[in-house]
Queue: 2 jobs
Job 1
Amino acid sequence: MVFLAAACGPAPPEPGPPATPLPLGKPLFPSPRDAARAFLRALEAGDRDSLRSLALTEREFAEAVYPLLPASRPERNTAAAFLWSLSEPRSRNSLAGTLSRHGGTRLELVAVDFLGETTDYGAFRVHRETVLTVRTPEGDQRVMRLFGSMIEQDGRYKIYSFVVD
Protein backbone atom coordinates (compact mmCIF):
# COMPACT_ATOMS: atom_id res chain seq x y z
CA MET A 1 0.00 0.00 0.00
CA VAL A 2 2.85 2.38 0.66
CA PHE A 3 4.05 1.88 -2.90
CA LEU A 4 0.63 2.78 -4.33
CA ALA A 5 0.41 6.00 -2.33
CA ALA A 6 3.91 7.03 -3.37
CA ALA A 7 3.19 6.32 -7.03
CA CYS A 8 0.14 8.53 -7.00
CA GLY A 9 2.13 11.48 -5.68
CA PRO A 10 0.81 14.35 -3.59
CA ALA A 11 -2.81 15.42 -3.73
CA PRO A 12 -3.56 17.99 -6.44
CA PRO A 13 -3.74 21.60 -5.28
CA GLU A 14 -7.11 23.13 -4.50
CA PRO A 15 -8.65 24.82 -7.56
CA GLY A 16 -8.43 28.59 -7.57
CA PRO A 17 -8.83 31.44 -9.99
CA PRO A 18 -7.48 30.72 -13.46
CA ALA A 19 -3.84 31.72 -13.94
CA THR A 20 -4.90 33.77 -16.95
CA PRO A 21 -8.38 35.27 -16.60
CA LEU A 22 -10.74 34.10 -19.29
CA PRO A 23 -11.92 36.80 -21.67
CA LEU A 24 -15.51 37.91 -21.79
CA GLY A 25 -17.36 36.97 -24.96
CA LYS A 26 -18.69 39.26 -27.64
CA PRO A 27 -20.18 41.71 -27.94
CA LEU A 28 -17.74 43.94 -26.12
CA PHE A 29 -17.76 47.66 -26.77
CA PRO A 30 -14.91 50.20 -26.78
CA SER A 31 -16.77 52.52 -24.41
CA PRO A 32 -19.77 52.65 -22.09
CA ARG A 33 -21.41 55.00 -24.62
CA ASP A 34 -21.11 52.40 -27.39
CA ALA A 35 -22.62 49.70 -25.14
CA ALA A 36 -25.47 52.06 -24.17
CA ARG A 37 -26.14 52.98 -27.82
CA ALA A 38 -26.39 49.29 -28.74
CA PHE A 39 -28.81 48.82 -25.84
CA LEU A 40 -30.97 51.78 -26.95
CA ARG A 41 -31.09 50.53 -30.57
CA ALA A 42 -32.25 47.07 -29.45
CA LEU A 43 -34.72 48.64 -27.00
CA GLU A 44 -36.22 50.78 -29.76
CA ALA A 45 -36.53 47.67 -31.94
CA GLY A 46 -38.16 45.82 -29.03
CA ASP A 47 -35.64 43.03 -29.66
CA ARG A 48 -35.42 40.98 -26.44
CA ASP A 49 -32.87 38.54 -27.92
CA SER A 50 -30.54 41.33 -29.03
CA LEU A 51 -30.86 42.97 -25.62
CA ARG A 52 -30.04 39.73 -23.81
CA SER A 53 -27.01 39.20 -26.08
CA LEU A 54 -25.55 42.47 -24.77
CA ALA A 55 -25.35 41.17 -21.19
CA LEU A 56 -23.08 38.77 -19.34
CA THR A 57 -23.92 35.12 -20.04
CA GLU A 58 -24.00 32.27 -17.56
CA ARG A 59 -20.80 30.85 -19.06
CA GLU A 60 -19.00 34.22 -18.83
CA PHE A 61 -20.15 34.58 -15.25
CA ALA A 62 -19.00 31.07 -14.29
CA GLU A 63 -15.67 31.12 -16.14
CA ALA A 64 -14.51 34.74 -16.16
CA VAL A 65 -16.25 36.55 -13.31
CA TYR A 66 -17.11 34.12 -10.52
CA PRO A 67 -13.55 32.82 -9.94
CA LEU A 68 -12.44 36.33 -8.94
CA LEU A 69 -15.41 37.18 -6.71
CA PRO A 70 -15.15 36.86 -2.92
CA ALA A 71 -18.09 34.42 -3.08
CA SER A 72 -15.86 31.91 -4.91
CA ARG A 73 -13.58 31.40 -1.90
CA PRO A 74 -13.77 27.83 -0.58
CA GLU A 75 -14.83 28.94 2.90
CA ARG A 76 -17.91 30.62 1.39
CA ASN A 77 -19.09 27.35 -0.18
CA THR A 78 -21.17 29.20 -2.79
CA ALA A 79 -21.31 27.75 -6.29
CA ALA A 80 -21.38 29.89 -9.42
CA ALA A 81 -24.53 28.11 -10.61
CA PHE A 82 -26.30 28.98 -7.36
CA LEU A 83 -25.41 32.69 -7.61
CA TRP A 84 -26.48 32.72 -11.26
CA SER A 85 -29.80 31.07 -10.36
CA LEU A 86 -30.47 33.94 -7.96
CA SER A 87 -29.43 36.82 -10.21
CA GLU A 88 -30.50 35.74 -13.70
CA PRO A 89 -34.28 35.64 -13.05
CA ARG A 90 -34.09 39.12 -11.50
CA SER A 91 -32.19 40.37 -14.54
CA ARG A 92 -34.64 38.74 -16.95
CA ASN A 93 -37.65 40.22 -15.09
CA SER A 94 -36.07 43.66 -14.96
CA LEU A 95 -35.43 43.53 -18.71
CA ALA A 96 -39.05 42.51 -19.32
CA GLY A 97 -40.23 45.55 -17.35
CA THR A 98 -37.88 47.88 -19.23
CA LEU A 99 -39.10 46.47 -22.54
CA SER A 100 -42.76 46.89 -21.60
CA ARG A 101 -42.23 50.50 -20.50
CA HIS A 102 -39.77 51.71 -23.14
CA GLY A 103 -39.64 49.18 -25.99
CA GLY A 104 -40.34 50.78 -29.35
CA THR A 105 -39.36 54.25 -28.12
CA ARG A 106 -36.50 56.08 -29.80
CA LEU A 107 -34.15 57.41 -27.12
CA GLU A 108 -31.04 59.28 -28.21
CA LEU A 109 -28.04 58.90 -25.92
CA VAL A 110 -26.63 62.11 -24.46
CA ALA A 111 -24.40 60.74 -21.66
CA VAL A 112 -23.54 57.67 -19.58
CA ASP A 113 -22.66 57.98 -15.90
CA PHE A 114 -22.09 55.56 -13.04
CA LEU A 115 -23.61 56.66 -9.74
CA GLY A 116 -22.40 53.65 -7.76
CA GLU A 117 -18.95 52.49 -6.84
CA THR A 118 -16.55 50.84 -9.23
CA THR A 119 -14.96 47.65 -7.93
CA ASP A 120 -11.68 46.41 -9.39
CA TYR A 121 -11.34 42.61 -9.37
CA GLY A 122 -7.99 42.60 -11.19
CA ALA A 123 -9.03 41.06 -14.51
CA PHE A 124 -12.18 43.19 -14.72
CA ARG A 125 -13.97 46.11 -13.10
CA VAL A 126 -17.65 46.45 -12.31
CA HIS A 127 -19.19 49.92 -12.70
CA ARG A 128 -22.42 50.10 -10.70
CA GLU A 129 -25.67 52.03 -11.10
CA THR A 130 -25.47 52.98 -14.76
CA VAL A 131 -27.45 56.11 -15.56
CA LEU A 132 -28.24 57.18 -19.10
CA THR A 133 -29.10 60.74 -20.02
CA VAL A 134 -31.27 60.49 -23.12
CA ARG A 135 -33.24 62.75 -25.42
CA THR A 136 -36.85 61.66 -25.98
CA PRO A 137 -38.69 61.93 -29.32
CA GLU A 138 -40.28 65.14 -27.98
CA GLY A 139 -36.80 66.64 -27.48
CA ASP A 140 -36.83 66.44 -23.67
CA GLN A 141 -33.75 65.28 -21.79
CA ARG A 142 -34.31 62.58 -19.19
CA VAL A 143 -32.02 60.75 -16.80
CA MET A 144 -32.91 57.05 -16.78
CA ARG A 145 -31.77 53.80 -15.18
CA LEU A 146 -32.54 51.27 -17.91
CA PHE A 147 -30.08 48.56 -16.85
CA GLY A 148 -27.79 47.86 -13.92
CA SER A 149 -24.03 47.60 -13.90
CA MET A 150 -21.46 47.43 -16.67
CA ILE A 151 -18.41 45.21 -16.63
CA GLU A 152 -15.10 46.36 -18.11
CA GLN A 153 -12.28 44.07 -19.20
CA ASP A 154 -9.16 45.38 -20.93
CA GLY A 155 -10.89 48.69 -21.71
CA ARG A 156 -13.91 46.97 -23.32
CA TYR A 157 -17.45 47.07 -21.90
CA LYS A 158 -20.64 45.07 -21.74
CA ILE A 159 -23.76 45.06 -19.62
CA TYR A 160 -23.35 43.03 -16.45
CA SER A 161 -27.05 42.78 -15.58
CA PHE A 162 -30.40 44.39 -16.31
CA VAL A 163 -31.28 44.62 -12.62
CA VAL A 164 -32.07 48.18 -11.60
CA ASP A 165 -32.42 48.48 -7.82
Note: Residues 1-19 have pLDDT under 50 and may be disordered.
Job 2
Amino acid sequence: MIYIKKWLEHYGELFPVTDSQIEFFNKIGSGFNSPVKFLSVDCGTAELAQQLNEKNFDCTVTDTYKEFIDLLKVKTTNIEPKIKSFNLFPQDIGRYLGKNFFNIVYCGDYRVVFMRDKIYISKLMIDAKSLLTDNGFLIFDLINFTKFDFSKDIVELPTKSSSRATLRSWITKDKENVTYLLNQQVVTLNGKTIDEVKDEPITPISMESFKKFATDLGFSSIDFYSDYDMNPLNPESEKIVCVLRK
Protein backbone atom coordinates (compact mmCIF):
# COMPACT_ATOMS: atom_id res chain seq x y z
CA MET A 1 0.00 0.00 0.00
CA ILE A 2 2.76 2.41 -0.96
CA TYR A 3 0.11 4.35 -2.87
CA ILE A 4 -1.44 6.00 0.17
CA LYS A 5 1.07 8.84 0.11
CA LYS A 6 -0.44 10.11 -3.13
CA TRP A 7 -4.14 9.44 -2.58
CA LEU A 8 -4.37 9.56 1.19
CA GLU A 9 -6.91 12.41 0.99
CA HIS A 10 -9.28 10.18 -1.01
CA TYR A 11 -8.92 7.00 1.05
CA GLY A 12 -11.71 7.75 3.52
CA GLU A 13 -14.13 8.58 0.68
CA LEU A 14 -13.36 5.38 -1.22
CA PHE A 15 -13.59 3.20 1.91
CA PRO A 16 -16.38 4.92 3.85
CA VAL A 17 -17.91 3.81 7.13
CA THR A 18 -21.61 3.01 6.71
CA ASP A 19 -24.50 3.24 9.16
CA SER A 20 -24.98 -0.53 8.92
CA GLN A 21 -21.34 -1.01 9.88
CA ILE A 22 -21.78 1.07 13.03
CA GLU A 23 -25.00 -0.78 13.88
CA PHE A 24 -23.23 -4.11 13.37
CA PHE A 25 -20.46 -3.29 15.83
CA ASN A 26 -22.93 -1.84 18.32
CA LYS A 27 -24.89 -5.08 18.11
CA ILE A 28 -21.98 -7.46 18.67
CA GLY A 29 -20.53 -5.12 21.27
CA SER A 30 -23.73 -5.10 23.32
CA GLY A 31 -22.83 -8.43 24.91
CA PHE A 32 -19.76 -6.99 26.67
CA ASN A 33 -19.31 -4.65 29.59
CA SER A 34 -18.94 -0.98 28.70
CA PRO A 35 -16.66 0.36 27.40
CA VAL A 36 -16.25 -2.28 24.70
CA LYS A 37 -12.56 -2.79 23.99
CA PHE A 38 -12.07 -2.52 20.23
CA LEU A 39 -8.91 -3.05 18.17
CA SER A 40 -8.69 -2.09 14.49
CA VAL A 41 -5.72 -3.71 12.70
CA ASP A 42 -4.41 -1.87 9.62
CA CYS A 43 -7.00 0.77 10.39
CA GLY A 44 -6.49 3.13 7.43
CA THR A 45 -8.02 6.49 8.30
CA ALA A 46 -9.49 4.91 11.46
CA GLU A 47 -12.85 6.51 10.73
CA LEU A 48 -14.63 3.46 12.14
CA ALA A 49 -12.68 3.69 15.40
CA GLN A 50 -13.40 7.41 15.62
CA GLN A 51 -17.14 6.86 15.29
CA LEU A 52 -17.15 3.97 17.75
CA ASN A 53 -15.09 6.08 20.15
CA GLU A 54 -17.99 8.55 20.20
CA LYS A 55 -20.25 5.65 21.23
CA ASN A 56 -18.17 4.85 24.31
CA PHE A 57 -15.98 2.13 22.79
CA ASP A 58 -12.42 1.95 24.15
CA CYS A 59 -10.53 2.05 20.84
CA THR A 60 -7.02 1.02 19.87
CA VAL A 61 -5.76 1.11 16.28
CA THR A 62 -2.65 -0.04 14.46
CA ASP A 63 -1.42 0.48 10.93
CA THR A 64 1.53 -0.65 8.87
CA TYR A 65 1.87 2.86 7.48
CA LYS A 66 2.92 5.79 9.63
CA GLU A 67 1.00 8.18 7.37
CA PHE A 68 -2.33 6.82 8.64
CA ILE A 69 -1.26 7.00 12.29
CA ASP A 70 0.02 10.57 11.88
CA LEU A 71 -3.24 11.59 10.17
CA LEU A 72 -5.29 10.14 13.04
CA LYS A 73 -3.24 11.98 15.66
CA VAL A 74 -3.79 15.29 13.87
CA LYS A 75 -7.54 14.69 13.46
CA THR A 76 -8.08 13.69 17.09
CA THR A 77 -5.78 16.17 18.85
CA ASN A 78 -8.60 17.77 20.83
CA ILE A 79 -10.83 14.71 21.18
CA GLU A 80 -11.37 12.79 24.42
CA PRO A 81 -11.11 9.96 25.22
CA LYS A 82 -8.00 9.40 23.16
CA ILE A 83 -7.75 6.60 20.63
CA LYS A 84 -4.60 4.63 21.31
CA SER A 85 -2.61 4.29 18.08
CA PHE A 86 0.48 2.33 17.09
CA ASN A 87 2.54 2.04 13.91
CA LEU A 88 2.70 -1.77 13.77
CA PHE A 89 2.72 -4.51 11.16
CA PRO A 90 -0.26 -6.88 11.58
CA GLN A 91 2.08 -9.78 12.33
CA ASP A 92 3.46 -7.85 15.34
CA ILE A 93 0.26 -7.19 17.27
CA GLY A 94 0.77 -10.31 19.40
CA ARG A 95 4.15 -9.01 20.59
CA TYR A 96 3.07 -5.54 21.68
CA LEU A 97 -0.61 -5.63 22.66
CA GLY A 98 -2.25 -7.14 25.74
CA LYS A 99 -3.47 -10.73 25.82
CA ASN A 100 -7.12 -11.48 26.66
CA PHE A 101 -7.93 -7.76 26.59
CA PHE A 102 -10.00 -6.89 23.51
CA ASN A 103 -13.66 -7.77 22.98
CA ILE A 104 -13.48 -7.13 19.23
CA VAL A 105 -10.54 -7.28 16.82
CA TYR A 106 -11.23 -6.00 13.31
CA CYS A 107 -9.30 -5.91 10.02
CA GLY A 108 -11.20 -4.07 7.28
CA ASP A 109 -10.97 -2.66 3.75
CA TYR A 110 -9.52 -6.01 2.58
CA ARG A 111 -6.16 -4.88 3.96
CA VAL A 112 -5.40 -8.45 5.05
CA VAL A 113 -4.55 -9.42 1.44
CA PHE A 114 -1.47 -7.19 1.61
CA MET A 115 0.14 -9.59 4.07
CA ARG A 116 1.32 -11.43 0.94
CA ASP A 117 1.34 -14.95 2.33
CA LYS A 118 -1.29 -17.20 3.92
CA ILE A 119 1.21 -18.07 6.66
CA TYR A 120 1.20 -14.43 7.81
CA ILE A 121 -2.59 -14.32 7.67
CA SER A 122 -2.79 -17.46 9.77
CA LYS A 123 -0.36 -15.91 12.27
CA LEU A 124 -2.52 -12.79 12.46
CA MET A 125 -5.51 -14.95 13.30
CA ILE A 126 -3.54 -16.79 15.99
CA ASP A 127 -2.34 -13.53 17.53
CA ALA A 128 -5.75 -11.87 17.30
CA LYS A 129 -7.37 -14.81 19.08
CA SER A 130 -4.83 -14.52 21.90
CA LEU A 131 -5.74 -10.83 22.31
CA LEU A 132 -9.47 -11.55 22.60
CA THR A 133 -11.41 -12.02 25.79
CA ASP A 134 -13.59 -15.09 26.18
CA ASN A 135 -16.38 -14.98 23.55
CA GLY A 136 -14.63 -12.08 21.82
CA PHE A 137 -15.05 -11.49 18.08
CA LEU A 138 -12.51 -11.43 15.25
CA ILE A 139 -13.94 -9.66 12.18
CA PHE A 140 -12.49 -9.53 8.67
CA ASP A 141 -13.84 -7.44 5.79
CA LEU A 142 -12.89 -9.23 2.56
CA ILE A 143 -13.38 -9.31 -1.18
CA ASN A 144 -15.21 -12.43 -2.33
CA PHE A 145 -12.36 -13.70 -4.49
CA THR A 146 -14.18 -16.99 -5.12
CA LYS A 147 -16.46 -15.28 -7.65
CA PHE A 148 -13.56 -14.30 -9.92
CA ASP A 149 -11.92 -16.39 -12.63
CA PHE A 150 -8.21 -16.45 -11.79
CA SER A 151 -7.39 -18.41 -14.92
CA LYS A 152 -7.65 -15.10 -16.80
CA ASP A 153 -4.58 -12.91 -17.34
CA ILE A 154 -6.32 -9.93 -15.76
CA VAL A 155 -8.94 -10.05 -12.98
CA GLU A 156 -10.90 -6.81 -12.64
CA LEU A 157 -12.09 -6.06 -9.10
CA PRO A 158 -15.20 -3.99 -8.32
CA THR A 159 -14.73 -0.26 -8.89
CA LYS A 160 -15.08 2.03 -5.88
CA SER A 161 -16.31 5.60 -6.37
CA SER A 162 -16.88 8.74 -4.35
CA SER A 163 -18.01 12.24 -5.32
CA ARG A 164 -14.39 13.22 -5.98
CA ALA A 165 -12.61 10.09 -7.20
CA THR A 166 -12.87 6.62 -8.68
CA LEU A 167 -10.65 3.67 -7.75
CA ARG A 168 -10.03 0.94 -10.31
CA SER A 169 -8.28 -2.24 -9.15
CA TRP A 170 -7.10 -5.28 -11.08
CA ILE A 171 -5.00 -8.35 -10.40
CA THR A 172 -2.45 -9.97 -12.67
CA LYS A 173 -0.44 -13.14 -12.16
CA ASP A 174 3.32 -13.51 -12.14
CA LYS A 175 3.33 -16.94 -13.73
CA GLU A 176 7.04 -17.47 -13.19
CA ASN A 177 6.87 -16.97 -9.42
CA VAL A 178 3.20 -18.02 -9.07
CA THR A 179 2.27 -14.83 -7.25
CA TYR A 180 -0.65 -12.43 -7.64
CA LEU A 181 -0.02 -8.74 -8.21
CA LEU A 182 -2.38 -5.84 -7.51
CA ASN A 183 -2.57 -2.70 -9.61
CA GLN A 184 -4.67 0.29 -8.63
CA GLN A 185 -5.47 3.58 -10.28
CA VAL A 186 -7.31 6.56 -8.83
CA VAL A 187 -8.92 9.08 -11.19
CA THR A 188 -10.03 12.32 -9.55
CA LEU A 189 -13.03 14.42 -10.57
CA ASN A 190 -10.79 16.89 -12.41
CA GLY A 191 -9.29 14.07 -14.49
CA LYS A 192 -6.02 13.62 -12.62
CA THR A 193 -4.78 10.02 -12.64
CA ILE A 194 -2.89 8.71 -9.61
CA ASP A 195 -1.25 5.54 -10.85
CA GLU A 196 1.11 4.48 -8.08
CA VAL A 197 0.19 0.89 -7.21
CA LYS A 198 1.94 -1.33 -9.68
CA ASP A 199 2.55 -5.06 -9.28
CA GLU A 200 2.05 -5.05 -5.50
CA PRO A 201 2.19 -8.69 -4.26
CA ILE A 202 -1.02 -9.78 -2.52
CA THR A 203 -2.74 -12.91 -1.24
CA PRO A 204 -6.29 -13.19 -2.65
CA ILE A 205 -7.38 -15.51 0.13
CA SER A 206 -10.70 -17.33 -0.18
CA MET A 207 -13.52 -17.83 2.29
CA GLU A 208 -12.67 -21.53 2.29
CA SER A 209 -9.13 -20.81 3.48
CA PHE A 210 -10.40 -18.53 6.23
CA LYS A 211 -12.84 -21.21 7.32
CA LYS A 212 -10.10 -23.84 7.48
CA PHE A 213 -7.77 -21.58 9.48
CA ALA A 214 -10.57 -20.65 11.89
CA THR A 215 -11.61 -24.28 12.34
CA ASP A 216 -8.02 -25.37 12.99
CA LEU A 217 -7.62 -22.58 15.55
CA GLY A 218 -10.70 -23.68 17.46
CA PHE A 219 -12.97 -20.63 17.14
CA SER A 220 -16.32 -21.48 18.73
CA SER A 221 -18.35 -20.09 15.84
CA ILE A 222 -17.56 -19.20 12.23
CA ASP A 223 -20.01 -17.15 10.15
CA PHE A 224 -19.85 -15.41 6.78
CA TYR A 225 -22.17 -12.65 5.55
CA SER A 226 -22.45 -10.60 2.39
CA ASP A 227 -22.64 -7.28 4.25
CA TYR A 228 -22.92 -5.64 7.68
CA ASP A 229 -26.68 -6.13 7.65
CA MET A 230 -25.72 -9.81 8.06
CA ASN A 231 -27.49 -10.90 4.89
CA PRO A 232 -26.62 -14.45 3.79
CA LEU A 233 -23.54 -14.88 1.65
CA ASN A 234 -24.19 -15.91 -1.94
CA PRO A 235 -21.82 -16.77 -4.81
CA GLU A 236 -22.22 -13.32 -6.38
CA SER A 237 -21.61 -11.29 -3.22
CA GLU A 238 -18.82 -8.76 -3.73
CA LYS A 239 -17.97 -8.55 -0.04
CA ILE A 240 -17.49 -11.13 2.68
CA VAL A 241 -17.87 -10.15 6.33
CA CYS A 242 -16.13 -12.93 8.25
CA VAL A 243 -17.27 -13.21 11.89
CA LEU A 244 -15.24 -15.52 14.16
CA ARG A 245 -15.97 -15.97 17.85
CA LYS A 246 -13.40 -17.15 20.37
Note: The helical segments are 4-14, 19-29, 47-54, 66-75, 93-96, 118-131, 207-216.
